[in-house]
Amino acid sequence: MAKRALSAPDEAALWAAHAAKAVAAFDFWNHFLGLRMGPQNAALLDDAATQAFGKIIRAVSWVESKHGTVGANQPKRDPMQCGNPNDVYWRELNGLTPQEDIFVRGPGLPNLKASKLPPAAESDTAFPAAAEISALADRLKGHRGADFTPMQSFYWAISYLIHRTNLTASARTFQCGDVSRQRLVNGAVAYNGGGDPNYRTKIEAALALIGDIEPFVDAPQSLAAGGAPPDLGEMARALVRELTSAVFPDAASRAMFPGGIRSVRVSMTSGQLGNPGVSAELEISGHPAADRAPEPDFHEDDPDAPAIEALAMRAEAAREPSGRDWVTRFPGSRSTADLAHGFREGVEKFIRAMSDGGAAVRISATFRPPERAYLMHFAFKIARENLDPMSVPAMDGVDIDWVHRNGAGGVDLPASRRAAEDMVQAYGMSVGAALRSRHTERRAIDMTISWSGNLTLRDGNGQEVTIATSPRSGGNTSLHRVGRSFGVVKLVSDPPHWSEDGH
C-alpha cells in the first residue's frame, strides 16, 4: 500500500500533540538561561521573539522526525532527535567528553558547563519531573532506553537549539540579539551539526509549510530615511498581517498558497510635505503544494551509517563538473582560534608545551566547513569506494556536478571517477572524510609533530615528562598520554588527527 504524503493539515494535527511541551520547555529555558534581546542584549524577550523561537522549534521537530512519526532512530520517543547517545551534546550532558560547551547565562546567573546543566536545571522548581534525564534507568543509552520520552526530547533539545543559535551568531548563550529569521535558521542548521547537507532547505520548506509569515517581512532601511514617518516599517508589517490573516487564517484551511509562503515583498512610499499620504504595493509568492512523501531520516545512531549515500537528489540548476578546481573552495582553517571554546584552550596549551620542549608542530587543519567536508567525503567515495556518482545528494550552496558525460550526453563513469580522484589527491587524503566530524564541529585538529633526541615537556597536570622512545612523531604513545592530559585525544588510525574524544 502506498504511503500518503503528509500535508499542512497533517503537520498541524501532529504538532498539536507536542505544542504544549514545546511552549513550556522554551518558557523554562527563557527564564533559566536569562535570555535577552536587542542591540545591547539587555531587553527581555518580547512576544514576537518568543513566537519566532516557537516557529523554529516546530520546524526542527518536523524536519527531524515529522513530529515523532518518521525515522529509524526512535522518533516517537525523541521527536527532536537530541537523545542520540553518539551525539556530542548528549555525551556532554552526561559528562563523557574531556571538554564541554559552556552555557553563558544572563545577568546575575552563574555560567554552567554542559554536564552541570541537568542537575542545575532539574533543581529548579519550575522544571518538570517528567523531563528529568537523571530519572532515566540508563541515561547513557539516551533515546535507546525505553523510558526516554518526548518531554525529555523537547526540554533538552531546546536548550541546545538556543545555545547553538546564539553561538553561531558569535554571541553568548543568553544573547538573542535581533532574533531575526536568518539567525534562527542558521541556528537550526548548527543544531543539526552538518549531518544533512540539505538541512537548510528542509527547514525553509518546513517554515513555509507551517505558515511562517512574519519572519519573512523586513522593513527596508530606506523607509526610515528622507523624512519618512518613524512607524512606516510597523505599518508595513501590520499591512502584511492583516492581508495574510484574512486570506488564509491557518494552514489547515488555506485556499491560497497551500504549500506555504516563500517571500513577502512590501514597497511603501511616503508622501512629501503637504501630501502626507502613503502608498503601498504588496507581492506574495508561495511554494508549490507540500504534497511530497516524507524525507528520509538523516539522524543515524551509527555515525558511519551510509543511509545518506542512497539518496538520489539532483539539482535542477546548471552545475560545474567535479575536479581539482573545487579543492580551493570553501577553505578550511588552520587556526586554533576557530576551534570550539574549551577544546581550543587545551589544544593551545598542548602545542605550547610541545614547542617549549623543542618539538616542531605544523597544523594542517582545524575547522572544516560542512561544504568542504561534503566535497571531500563524496570525492573519496566515488574515487576509492566505487560510489555511483549519480547517487550523490546535492548540497545547498555547492553547485558541483559529480557526473561527467561523453560527447553523446551519456554518463562517462571513468571520467567521473578520474575527476574525483584528482580531488582526493589535491586534498591529500589517505582516508575518507566524514560528512559530520569533529572537524565540522570545531573539536578536532590535524597536526604533524616531530622532534629529535628526547622530548621533555610538562603535561596538563604540571608534571614533567620525558619521552625517550620512538617514533619521534605524533604516533608516539607516550605523547598520546600527554595530549590526553590536556583533553586532546589521538585517533591512532589517522596519523595527524587529534580531537576531544579520539573520534
Describe this structure in words.
With 503 residues, the chain is an alpha+beta fold. It contains 13 helices and twelve strands. It has helices spanning 8-16, 19-33, 47-65, 88-93, 117-122, 150-168, 181-192, 199-209, 232-247, 343-356, 370-384, 413-427, 477-485; strands spanning 102-103, 112-113, 261-270, 278-286, 320-321, 360-365, 400-401, 444-450, 455-458, 464-467, 489-490, 497-499. It is globular. 41% of the residues are buried. Residues 1-7, 215-230, 245-255, 270-276 and 287-317 have low confidence and may be disordered.
Note the main attributes of this structure.
503 residues, alpha+beta, four-stranded antiparallel β-sheet, disordered N terminus
Question: In summary, what is this structure?
Answer:
The protein has 503 residues and is an alpha+beta fold.
Q: What's the pLDDT, averaged over the residues? A: 82
Note poorly predicted spans. Answer: 1-7, 215-230, 245-255, 270-276, 287-317
Choose one word for the global shape: globular
Put simply, the count of helices is 13
What's the Cα radius of gyration?
Answer: 25 Å
Name the structural class: alpha+beta
Q: Give the end-to-end Cα distance, rounded to a whole number of Å.
A: 42 Å
Number of strands: 12
Helix content: 25-40%
Q: How large a portion of the residues is in β-strands, by DSSP E?
A: 5-15%
Q: Sheet with the most strands? A: 4 strands, antiparallel
Order of helices and strands: HHHHEEHHHHHEEEHEHEHEEEHEE
Strand order, sheet with most strands: 6-8-12-11
